[in-house]
Design goal:
The protein is of the alpha/beta class. 36% of the residues lie in helices and 13% in strands. A seven-stranded parallel sheet has the order 3-2-1-4-5-6-7, sandwiched between helices.
Length: 277
């Protein structure tokens, strides 16, 4: 069955082959007990899988999303079924005001903040640079990297020693796909932002790391890529398939946990065998 094309950012309900977020498989062991986390782009894909894993490890979660209300409510239900608090915050994080509102809401609703997962992103496929509108280039930067800067600034007054900031980079940070030029460029910026910020915040004992996924099957794929690319998505990896969101979430759990107390400034690849240098 071919995958139906969607308008970005896409929804789970419109997908014929549903991603696996670990709904039936993830088992927690208390690794994040009592922690309070914000996850942007938490309605579906890697964000949903991370929210499920965090909750089953004992964390309360604020789920930030654009306007995919049904997906977001389903994610919140899964968090609550794990016995943890779920708070939904809809908004466009390319806006400074929405970034500040998100952190204010998280601190108010959870009573503080221990983990910030910057995961929300926009991408679109273009065959030539001429067809990329200036407005799209700017929006991609505003959401993918500038929002991280703004969210970190807003969150820092509430992050104490041992807190963790985790940014979603990409295999594109090292091997940029030319047809994803704006997206790939922001992902390179995220890698450098993470490495520099880890050094800036080291004396505060706040850890900063990034996760670099390869081709992961999420609603973003059929909503931003042409059908022929969707059909072949992930088949060029050494493992020969796209990854599932549940296969990325455990790395976020590690980096959020106290077990990763000496891991900062790292970029961890989850790419199906494609090396990142």
């Amino acid at each position: 069955m071919s995958e139906p094309q969607q308008m970005p950012p896409g929804t789970l309900g419109a997908m014929s082959r549903k991603p696996d977020h670990g709904e039936e498989s993830y088992r927690g062991s208390g690794r994040l007990q009592g922690k309070r986390a914000v996850i942007t782009g938490g309605d579906s894909g890697i964000g949903r899988a991370t929210a499920i894993a965090f909750a089953r490890e004992g964390a309360d979660v604020v789920i930030a999303y654009l306007d995919e209300h049904d997906d977001a409510h389903d994610t919140a239900k899964l968090v609550e079924e794990a016995g943890r608090k779920a708070v939904l915050v809809a908004g466009d994080l390319s806006s400074r005001h929405e970034c500040e509102t998100l952190i204010d809401t998280a601190v108010r609703e959870l009573g503080g903040l221990d983990v910030l997962v910057n995961n929300a992103a926009y991408q679109m496929t273009h065959k030539t640079i001429e067809e990329i509108p200036d407005e799209e280039w700017q929006h991609t930067f505003d959401l993918n990297i500038t929002a991280m800067f703004r969210l970190v600034k807003a969150a820092l007054p509430h992050l104490g020693e041992g807190a963790s900031i985790i940014n979603t980079a990409s295999v594109n940070s090292d091997m940029p796909k030319p047809t994803l030029l704006p997206y790939a460029t922001t992902k390179g910026a995220i890698a450098n932002f993470t490495a520099g910020l880890a050094q800036l915040l080291g004396d505060r004992r706040i850890r900063v790391n990034s996760v670099a996924p390869g081709p992961i099957w999420t609603p973003l794929i059929p909503s931003t890529m042409p059908p022929e690319q969707v059909e072949e998505f992930g088949k060029n990896t050494p493992l020969g398939r796209p990854g599932e969101p549940k296969e990325v979430a455990p790395v976020f759990v590690l980096l959020a946990s106290d077990e990763a107390s000496y891991i900062s400034g790292a970029m961890i690849a989850v790419t199906g065998g494609k090396p990142i240098l």
